[in-house]
Amino acid sequence: MKILVCIKQVPDTTDIKWTENNTIQREGVESIINPYDVYALETALKLKKSTGAEITVLTMGPEQAKDILRKALAIGCDNAVLLSDKKFAGADTYSTGKTIAAAIKSKLSDFDLIICGQFAIDGDTAQTGPTIANKLDIPQVTYVKAVTECSEQHLTVKREIEEGTEILKVHLPALICVLKGFEEPTRPLINGIIKAQDAEITVYSHEDIGLQPDETGLRGSPTYVSRAFRPESKGQCVFVKSSDEICEKLKEFDIING
Amino acid sequence: MASGILIYAEVTKSGYIHPVFFTLAAKAQELSAKLGGAEVSALIITSPGKTEFFKEGFEKCGFDKVYAVEDLRLAQYNTELYAKAAVDIIKEIQSEIFLIGATTQGRDLAPRISSSIPTGLTADCIELDINDKGQLAATRPTFGGKLMATILCKKYPQMATVRPGVFKPLEQDVVKNTEIIYKTPDLNITPKVELLEFIKGVEEEINDLDSAEIIVAGGKGMKNSDGFKLLKEFAKVLGGAVGASRGAVDMGLADHSIQIGQTGKTVSPKLYIACGISGAIQHIVGMDASKRIIAINIDENAPIFDVADIGYVGDAFEVIPEIIDKLSRK
After folding, report:
1. CB B268 within 8 A of CB B211
2. DSSP secondary structure, B272-285, as one string
3. Sign of torsion, CA A16 A21 A22 A24?
4. Interatomic CA distance for residues A253 and A250, integer angstroms
5. What are B278-311's pLDDT values in tens digits?
6. Cα atoms found within 13 Å of the Cα of residue B283, Cβ hemisphere only
7. Alpha-carbon distance B211 to B268, whole Å?
């Protein structure tokens, strides 16, 4: 079995700082593997244990995104691919999904399963996974809580939705988007870290994967940001010291009558 | 030339139309007025005979037309079949705007549709407007609600998913003579995902949270089932509903069906009272559109205070009974 795991490098959103111009300061903010993608990796590693699957981890980003690929290699992924090109910059979810799908089609088409995290904590769109699946014309299952069965031809998964839990059988090849699990993520062993340091990471540009410059990045994106701003009334918490004061506020907010 | 506004009418597993649809219907009337009276239509994908059953609802919400795809194969939601049906119709009717609720179904279906057309899709919006060029300006929170972005789309239809509970349903009916147009797109594909079993959550509490104006939510800090009993009592005196964070659900203090946050529900009540919730980003994105937020937490550094309007640093088990007592005496 061959598994592709798509991961994203995100700023640690618990550590957001503001510049004087009310934009998010990106310099000096630590980058991490998107927490949902950590569970995409865990899901793949579990399948590797049970089926001997080979795992290729894939990301799109600048040169420094190699850091998260090395982290993935250190915990047991077999190969790493970075899609990196100035032309990819500014991509929205459609353009990102299309670019990743083009790379998979042209360079990694021999796969059985693609695993993504359900959301990325920076954008929180949950759109890239389904877009990749659609561009590859394969089925998708989103909100996957667990893979309960795996054979050559199909997976059985638990899908957690608003109204309850679905048990679904999905024929391979397919793409699944996973939720966070309960278990502690795998910690890399020293040997893994050392091996990952020297591991070769394949890098592809738009030409390598057969895309025209205007089909990718900002130019290939149907959406664009017209304005970004800091939400009002956030970070202005008024602290009160007693239940009386809380009741006063409830009156002020028209929740209770005075 | 693309014109008109199309709204997706999601039929839930229980066979009713998801409440988010009625909030989108109300917003559509407002957007339509700004577009000089653009036509407002709905798209429903369901099993035979269902659309007629909902007709009165469509008429009271001011829909000009309803495009209906009815087929036995569509009795249960299936990504591939539903996307196929929707794409065929959207390509034919050429709407200017297409809105979908940001429910689990909506978030699964919408990107599949938009990338087929292809057009742009803005996820999980909390505000929609028409700008001076007549484009849909869709505003959404990013970075866990710390930054807002207004997004425009260069292609048609301009698609957006919208958080449930952000807009209010119509206060007064806008009655129209809705025309139902039945469509029969080619559904001749073999879906590769099969539903083997469905285990239902606790429904009564789901509906409570969707419509509640006041939500009292508890996290890990509520420690045990007594903690949630206390929150239920608190919610009762305020006339609100009880919600929970992922942490509390994981500890078995509350059912998943009342979980609020990224893997649960998104809510935006008039007042949200977060009790013993530290405010992990995954929780914040599910409640930060609430009009007012009161946070009660023992840890003064808890990130929940960054999004709260009013904060109380202290023990929820002490202060909540005091508040309940004061409110009950009135």
Report:
1. no
2. EEEES----HHHHT
3. negative
4. 5
5. 998 778 888 988 889 999 999 999 999 988 999 9
6. 30
7. 9
Tell me, what DSSP letter sits at residue B135? -
* Distance between CA atoms of residues B262 and B282, nearest Å: 5
Tell how strand B158-162 and strand B121-125 pair up.
Answer: parallel
Preferred mutation among A16, A232, A243 to probe B, highest tally of B CBs within 10 A: A243
Q: What would the 3-class secondary structure string for B71-105 be?
A: CHHHCCCCHHHHHHHHHHHHHHHCCCEEEEECCHH
Please name every residue paired with B9 in a beta bridge, in sequence order, or none if there are none.
B44
CA atoms of B303 and B325, how far apart (whole Å): 28
**CB-based burial label for B112 (10 Å; 0-12, 13-18, 19+):** buried
Please write the tens of the pLDDT for every residue from B181-232.
999 999 999 999 999 999 987 655 455 787 788 999 999 999 988 999 999 9
HSE of B44 in the Cβ direction (CA atoms, 13 Å)?
Answer: 32
* Range(s) of chain B covered by CATH 3.40.50.620: 5-182
Average pLDDT, chain A: 91
**Ordered alpha helix ranges (H), chain A:** 35-51, 66-74, 93-107, 128-135, 190-198, 243-252
Q: Kindly report the length of chain B.
A: 330
> A241 — phi, psi (to 5°)?
-120, -5
- Contact residues on chain B for A163, CB-CB shorter than 8 A: 12-14, 200-201, 203, 206, 257
Evaluate whether the domain defined by B5-182 bears CATH number 3.20.20.70.
no
pLDDT of A37 strictly over 70: yes
SS3 label, residue A36: helix
> Which candidate from A121, A135, A163 shows the least CB-CB separation from B201?
A163
What CA–CA distance (Å, rounded) separates B180 from B64?
9
A249 → chain B, closest CA residue: B310
Distance CA B44, CA B11 (A): 8
The per-residue pLDDT for A14 is: 61
**Tokens of residue B317, six digits:** 């088990």
Check pLDDT > 80 for residue A210.
yes
Element (H, E) at B248: helix B246-250
> Could you give the CA distance from residue A58 to residue A205 in angstroms, rounded to a whole number?
13
Give Cα A58 distance to the centre of its chain.
Answer: 11
pTM for the model: 0.86
Which residues on chain A are in Cβ contact (under 8 Å) with B2?
A: none
pLDDT exceeds cutoff 80 at A223 = yes
Find where tokens 């998260």 sit: A68
Could you give the domains of chain A?
A: 2-227 (3.40.50.620)
Superfamily for the B203-328 domain: TPP-binding domain (3.40.50.1220)
Query: Residue A180: which H helix or E strand, with range?
Result: none
Residue of A nearest to B308 (CA): A237
Are A89 and A224 in contact by the 8 Å Cβ rule? The answer is no
Q: Please report where in the chains the tokens 């939500």 appear, as a residue.
A: B215
Tokens of B196: 């083997």
Closest partner residue to B147 among A168, A174, A230, by Cβ? A230
Distance CA B88, CA B93 (A): 9
| ipTM associated with this complex | 0.90
